[in-house]
Amino acid sequence: MAANKRLVLCLIFFIPLYGFSQENILKRKVNFQVENLALERVLLGLANVGDFSFSYNPQIILGDSLISMNVSDANVSDVLDRIFHGNIIYKVSGNHLILLKDKPEKVNENVKYSVSGYVYDAKTGIRLSSTTIYDVYTLTSTLTDDDGFYQLNLTSKYEEFGLAYIKTEFVDTLVMVQSADRKIDIRLRPKWTQAELAVKEPEFQSSVKPLDNISIVQKFVPNDQFIRTKNIDVIEQRTAQISIIPKIGTNLKMSGSVENSFSLNVFAGYSAGVRVMEIGGLMNINKRNVSGFQAAGLSNIVGGRTRGLQLAGLSNNNLGSLHGLQAAGISNMVVDTIRGVQLAGISNILQGGMKGWQIAGISNVTTKNVDGLQISGISNFARGDVDLMQVGGIINMGRNVNGVQLAGIVNAATGKVGGVQLAGIGNFASEVNAGQFSGIINIASKSVKGVQIAAILNYGKEIKGSQLGLFNISDTVSGLPIGFISFVRKGYRRVELFGNEVFYTNLTLKTGVHKFYNIFTGGLTPKDKIKTWGFGYGFGFEKSNGKRFLHSYDFTANWIMEEDKPVESLNLLNKLSINFAYKFGKRASVFLGPSINVHLSKWIDNDTGEFLSNIAPYSLSTTVYGDTQMQIWLAGQFGVRF
Predict the structure, then answer these.
(1) What is the spatial distance between Cα 254 and Cα 523, in angstroms, rounded to a whole number?
(2) What are phi and psi of 62, to 5 degrees?
(3) What pLDDT, on a 0 to 100 scale, did the predictor assign at position 13?
(4) Better pLDDT: 204 or 593
């Protein structure tokens, strides 16, 4: 460092790398107790407790003063007021607390100065490029070049000013400089490594682009401005800023390290954060957090969390969490979590969990749980659980859905559905607790507690309820599988061979459950040539009367072919059979019982107009309705069942 007696280095207390968040140092709460301790050691202890560094000119501090105090849960500012009795000004710069004279002496007018020099690595002696140097009062800044050289031109109205030298992975250094042209070489000490601190760095992988890697941000914010803010976090909080573009504004090129209560960006602005309101003609870019109201003609990009209302003509891109309302004409993206509402004309993307609503014209995507509602014109996707509802014009996908999935085409849940799935074509889930309703197909790979209703196919491994569809397939069913064909693997299946008054030989298959089964039957009357035969379909149910005795009720409709009857002529035998069975094996039984027969026929002799069917052995009642004859008779059947 250049030897100059008017140059005064600040005394800086270095503190651990981990601790408090980047809240205002003066507002940090501390518990602090000392007795008759030198002021210099008191400040060192307070810095350690508050997890920050002091920077000050030793000439303004009486280091041999003895201090005694005992405070609990007090602000840092309150402790300092008791020490200095209001005679010192406190200025926050990053994680430094700078102590200044009560009334800095002014010169008669603004004077221009130039400070230049080199920045070195104190450990290796290598010159350091891309080091940020800035005046803590005016925020005038510069960067060292590839050779570690810098030159900073300043305009000041005070006798001295503070220069901060900051680079990532090196300990911040602050120098108080008397107002005059000078050369200052600085050696920066590397920060302690994780091994030196014996601290295990948490494992973390993220696919999220850093703010300065987003292409549209790179177009608006110059690279040298990124380097300045990469070296520095938040150095100051100000009431307001006005900017034309990021590098032209009241906070100059240090805008990315300043938090503002109010921010007005004519075209685009770049800041560390906003606490109350920000409005941008085209774009607002914030390195850290935003609270309150933010609106942009095109886009809002926030590197931290957002609390409040965020509006954009095209898109909102948040790399942190959102608590509040986010609305955009095209898309919204949040990398962390949401507690609130996302509204977008096209899509909402959330790389975290949500408690609230996502509403989009086309699609919603959430990589974790949805504790709320997703509504879109086309699709909703939740990689995690959905606790309330998904409503999509085409498709909904989730893991466990504890509420409702409603889609025009398909609903899919890789896990459990606690409520209802309703889709125009198909529903797919592992478990369903209420019901699946679709126009074509329902699939539950494990269980259904409720009902499955589909026009074509229902499948569930364990059905604790009922199925209604053309085809029903399951392992077990506690209720009724109602359809054209119901196959229950652990259900009811029987083959019957029997005879009755119409067909001497009948073969029947029954499938379903005891409470409701489908019947497929065919019969014929053997002669020299097969003259009379038929096939039919029906349903029935069976009950047991003790260990050996059973009774069943079967209803079938049988299409009858007699001699040369035209295929298209109605000749339908409807039969209600009551069978009483005796079991002589695990599945085998013999049965017999009465039947009620209602025969409808349109088989007429075109010449005589007589009805030609002769399957009825006799008739209790014969009635003609136009060209249809109805005959009723009583008969019976006898057979064996396997």
Answers:
(1) 94
(2) -85, 90
(3) 39
(4) 593
What angle is formed at CA 272 by the lines to CA 269 and CA 274, rounded to 5 degrees?
A: 75
Section 287-310 average pLDDT: 95
Give the residue-averaged pLDDT of 315-322.
Answer: 93
pLDDT band at 235 (very low <50, low <70, confident <90, very high): low
- Predicted confidence at residue 197, as pLDDT, reads 41
The CATH number of residue 72's host domain is: 3.55.50.30
Rounded Cα distance, 313 and 138, in Å: 34
* Maximum Cα interatomic distance, the chain, rounded to a whole number of Å: 138
Residue whose token pair is 């680079």: 167
φ, ψ dihedrals at 229, nearest 5°: -80, -20
Is residue 499 domain-resident? Answer: yes
Output the six-digit token pair for 618: 């006799």
**Residue 202: is its pLDDT beyond 80?**
no
- pLDDT for 91 equals 78
Tokens of 26: 């003066």
For residue 203, being part of any structural domain is answered with: no
> 306-312 and 173-178 as β-strands: parallel, antiparallel, unpaired?
unpaired
**What domain range is 401 assigned to?**
235-479
* Element spanning 47, H or E: helix 39-50
User: Which strands make up the sheet holding 173-178, listed edge to edge?
Assistant: 8-9, 173-178, 160-166, 132-135, 141-143
User: Which residue stretches of 417-571 are H helix?
Assistant: none
What's the pLDDT at 64? Answer: 67
Q: Please, is 441 exposed, middle or buried when counting C-beta atoms within 10 Å of its C-beta (0-12, 13-18, 19+)?
A: buried
Contact (CB, 8 A) for 341 and 360: no
CATH of the domain at 576: 2.40.160
Residues 6+ apart with CB under 8 A from 520: 508, 509, 510, 511, 536, 537
pLDDT tens track for 383-422: 999 988 999 999 999 999 988 999 999 999 999 998 899 9
Model confidence over 507-566: pLDDT tens digits? 999 999 999 999 999 999 876 565 789 999 999 999 999 889 999 999 999 999 987 788
Q: Which residue among 75, 101, 127 closes a domain?
A: 101
**Best CA proximity match to 398, nearest among 412, 377, 388, 419:** 412
76-84 vs 39-50: helix axis angle to the nearest 10? 170
Q: What are the Cα distances from residue 324, in Å, to 206, 307, 337, 472?
A: 24, 6, 11, 47
User: Which amino acid belongs to residue 513?
Assistant: V
Q: Residue 114 contacts by C-beta under 8 Å, 6 or more apart in sequence?
A: 151, 152, 153, 154, 181
